[in-house]
Design goal:
The chain has 11 helices and 7 strands. The chain is an alpha/beta fold. It has one domain: Alpha-Beta Complex (Spore Coat Polysaccharide Biosynthesis Protein SpsA, Chain A), CATH 3.90.550. The chain is globular and about 50 Å long. It binds guanosine-5'-diphosphate and magnesium ion (MG). Magnesium ion binds next to loops.
Length: about 270
């Protein structure tokens, strides 16, 4: 764990400090990205006006109003919201009614939508979430505070608190993904496939993204292995509203393949 992860504990108001102590993922801040991004934090603190919350949305009409209202409440209505939408139901209309920017895209999988979503905002801090009411939007201020503290990526760790709301098969798979990724990276991580993370926009723009179903793991692994300041932060995980869009077996296999491919690519990049 990096010292910088310890240093953030003071700003971690709604999660327990011991949890952070267990969960600071590491990135030696001496990498190209860590150094380049340090200047941002020094030049002034980001506010909700600097924040974009982005998501892929695919037939989420049961959840979208709740998710967007929670974002508004947590950020005083100041965060920009971007939905990359492939729905055939009323999701995009509801999103627009709630003031979100909607980009229409044929459904092509999680990563195709989320890659478009993270590359769309002009604002300097980008937070991803799923549009299913599983992620705690009330934690947005803490994610932003950690970016202001110097983090390049803040990754919501669902497994720390047990993730009881997650189907057992997925929970087992996520522990296995974390074990494989930790082994291949040589650095311990807890939750490689979380949908809730904050990124400095520079980070998402500087790295080329290749994965689809495995994009969430890629978004953690590449910055970590390139020396960015990546921190995991425990979050609560709730039961989903509406149906999952991920096939657990096919999706799980695709994620495992992405983890191995991306870790090996990043190891080779070091030589
Ligand atoms: N636009 C778009 N969004 C997608 C697609 N597949 C999944 N999503 C969205 O990506 C997010 C993650 O999917 P989800 O079903 O929650 O996956 P799970 O958390 O693994 O069960 C949700 O907000 C989905 O609506 C897709 O093909 N296109
Ligand atoms: Mg989800």
């Amino acid at each position: 764990m990096s010292d910088s992860a310890h240093a953030t504990n003071g700003s971690a108001s709604a999660v327990d400090v011991a949890a952070d102590d267990e969960n600071g993922a590491t990135g030696s801040a001496d990498g190209e990205g860590g150094a380049a991004n340090a200047a941002d934090a020094e030049s002034g603190e980001y506010t909700f006006d600097d924040l974009s919350v982005v998501m892929g949305t695919y037939n989420e009409e049961e959840a979208i109003a709740t998710v967007l209202e929670d974002i508004d409440e947590a950020t005083d209505g100041r965060a920009e919201v971007v939905c990359v939408d492939g729905s055939s139901d009323r999701t995009p209309e509801i999103a627009r009614e709630h003031g979100a920017r909607v980009i229409e895209q044929e459904p092509q999988g999680y990563g195709v939508a989320v890659r478009e979503a993270i590359l769309t905002p002009d604002r300097p801090v980008v937070v991803t979430t799923d549009c299913d009411d599983t992620y705690p939007m009330e934690a947005l201020p803490e994610f932003l505070a950690e970016i202001n503290d110097g983090a390049d990526v803040v990754s919501g760790d669902r497994l720390y608190h047990g993730a009881d709301a997650m189907p057992a098969f997925n929970r087992f798979g996520n522990h296995a993904f974390a074990a494989i990724a930790s082994l291949l990276m040589g650095e311990g991580v807890h939750d490689t496939t979380t949908g809730m993370r904050a990124y400095r926009r520079d980070v998402v723009e500087e790295i080329g993204w290749t994965e689809n179903t495995g994009l969430s793991a890629e978004l953690l692994i590449r910055p970590l292995m390139r020396g960015y300041d990546v921190r995991e932060r425990p979050i609560r995980y709730a039961e989903r509203l509406g149906e999952t869009k991920l096939d657990p077996i096919g999706g799980g296999a695709a994620i495992a393949k992405s983890i191995v491919t991306v870790c090996l690519e990043e190891q080779l990049r070091r030589f």
